Amino acid sequence: MASIETQTESSRLQRHNIKRTSEAQKALIPNQDSEDLTIKSCEFEIFGIVHDVSFRHYTLRRAQKLSIRGWCMYTQHKTIKGLIQGYTKSFEAMRIWLRYTGSPTSRIDKCVFGPTEELKYFSYDAFTILNFLQQQ
Question: In 67-121, where does DSSP find H-type helix?
Answer without folding.
Answer: 88-100
